[in-house]
Amino acid sequence: MPRRAIFGGTFNPIHCAHLEMACAACEQFHLDEVVWVPTLAPHYKSQAAPFEHRLAMVEQAIAPYPQFTLAGLSARFAIEIFTALQQQKPDTHWFWLIGLDAFATLPRWVDRHKLASQCDWLIAPRGEPDKTQPQIHRIERQLQAEGITLRWQMLDRSPSPISSSLVRDRCQAILPIAKLVPMPVQTYIQQHGLYRS
Fold first, then answer.
1. DSSP secondary structure letters along 21-63
2. Of 38, 87, 128, 141, which is the most buried if we count CB atoms within 10 A?
3. 73, 74, 76, 80 alpha-carbon torsion, rounded to 10°
4. How far, in Å, CA of 68 to CA of 59, rounded?
5. C-alpha dihedral over 35, 15, 64, 5, to 10 degrees?
6. Measured distance CA(65)–CA(117) in Å, rounded
7. Which segment of 23-37, 57-71, 116-130 scores lowest on mean pLDDT?
8. What is the domain count for the chain?
9. Could you say which DSSP state residue 108 is in?
């Protein structure tokens, strides 16, 4: 049975740490495919570039990686993403690749009861492992209180200092971003004047 991971996010913009995270997941968990799903930005993310720009940047960034594919679903909720991909790719062992910050919001996700137990959750740490694990266990207990059981594992990789907000801040300040994003993404941001105001 194919082993596929969903990697959803606003990707505002996609950066090198996203790619490193997906590569680490492929290697550690023997994934056949990582499906990248740029999501519609929530209303509180006022700095989000338009969906079509974020989609194009992800497409260009993942092009060199044969195991990475793009799903342009224009979804806002994770359950919509999962349901659509499950229909497209049945008979799949599904994983959900997620950073710790996003994982911490799982107890507030729409239809989390339907989603949480259908995937193995692959969590990328945001600090030292001995501090990350207690955070994950706390979230796990919150979900267990709702009758939700999780299968999760932590990615074996060092946290990266790169973030989308760092890229945006440097664009705003007209500072170089060459080591933070793949070259095609840097070119795209410059060509379209993204994150300048």
1. HHHHHHHHHT-SEEEEEEPPPPTT-TTPPPHHHHHHHHHHHHT
2. 38
3. -30
4. 9
5. -20
6. 29
7. 116-130
8. 1
9. G
pLDDT digits (tens, 9 = 90+) for 108-133: 999 999 999 999 999 998 766 677 88
Is 196:172 a contact under the CB 8 Å cutoff?
yes
Answer yes or no: is 117 within a domain.
yes
In a domain, 55, yes or no: yes
66 in any annotated domain: yes
Q: Cβ of 51: how many Cβ atoms within 10 Å?
A: 16
Predicted TM-score (pTM) of the model is 0.94
- Residue 36, strand partner residues: 7, 70
Domain that holds residue 37: 3-160
Q: For residue 86, what are its two tokens?
A: 């499950």
Q: Is residue 132 part of a domain?
A: yes
Q: What are phi and psi of 97, to 5 degrees?
A: -90, 125
User: What is the average pLDDT score of the chain?
Assistant: 94
CA distance 143 to 137: 10
Q: Sign (positive/negative) of CA torsion 181, 187, 190, 195?
A: negative
Can you give the CATH number for the domain in which 110 is found? 3.40.50.620
Long-range contacts, 174-179 (Cβ 8 Å, 24+): 179/16
**66-104: per-residue pLDDT in tens?**
999 999 888 889 999 999 999 999 999 999 999 999 999
